[in-house]
Amino acid sequence: MLVLKNVSKSYDNSKNAVDKISLEIKKGEIIGFIGPNGAGKTTTIKMITGIISPTEGDIVINGVDISKAPIEAKKNFTYVPDHPSIFDAIKGIDYLNFIADMYEVSIKDRKERIERFTKVFQIYDALAQTINSYSHGMRQKLLLSGALLPNPNLFILDEPLVGLDPHSAKLLKDLMKEHCRNGGTIFFSSHVLEVVENLCDRVAIIHKGKLIACDTPDNIKKNKDLTLEEVFLEMTKDE
Ligand SMILES: Nc1ncnc2c1ncn2[C@@H]1O[C@H](COP(=O)(O)OP(=O)(O)OP(=O)(O)O)[C@@H](O)[C@H]1O
């Protein structure tokens, strides 16, 4: 579903913020992407989503190279960024209908899915209001509802749990599991290692721009009686 081949990004033409990352994610997998601050998570996600271009390497989404056929590739995924910045002079419902139009979601499906996700996230009653009246959490839930709405093949989230209350975080985790059970694929970054350990089929660890592990949580822990957090801290500590 998602293939990265030797992907690097340099912002200053001297050092690589992301350094020759290769990764293959299969349909139905949920992958957690973890790493210390500044490791290169957001840079990688921005390259996958086509917001920035790699300095070198290829990114292929559902068989489509995003640099060669960006629109075709982008039809396969939705993305929730780490900051819920959103054009906010429009109403919540107009934003969701815009997303549904972009992804060609039928009128019947969009009605059902908008109702379902916004009721789950308890923003349904606010949809007729303009987004600039929404709290930070409400904006994030609107973005999440919009990203789930097209039922994407690949769902990409950058730090999705930041700013969500525990109740909403649980709802999101349940929706993520459901999405993968139904054949969807998820790639998300997080600093909440307990969630990553419990939710993910595999965990990819990035450190100083390099991918230092990509395996099941048990294999990364080498089946020792340690938490993912303990192993992660050991693997990424600065000598
Ligand atoms: N627009 C930019 N211009 C120059 N350098 C950048 C830019 N964006 C990121 N960087 C640098 O690239 C490196 C990777 O940053 P990135 O934001 O991808 O890390 P991250 O793993 O997402 O970090 P965090 O956990 O803090 O969000 C860092 O050294 C950062 O300072």
From TrEMBL:
InterPro entries: AAA+_ATPase (IPR003593), ABC_transporter-like_ATP-bd (IPR003439), ABC_transporter-like_CS (IPR017871), ABC_Transporter_VariousFunc (IPR051782), P-loop_NTPase (IPR027417). Keywords: ATP-binding, Nucleotide-binding, Transport. PROSITE patterns: ABC_TRANSPORTER_1, ABC_TRANSPORTER_2. Transmembrane segments: none annotated. It holds the Pfam family ABC_tran. SMART domains: AAA (SM00382). GO terms for molecular function: ATP binding; ATP hydrolysis activity. Residues 2-233 form the ABC transporter domain. PANTHER family: ABC TRANSPORTER ATP-BINDING PROTEIN ALBC-RELATED. This is ABC-2 type transport system ATP-binding protein. It comes from Alkaliphilus peptidifermentans DSM 18978.
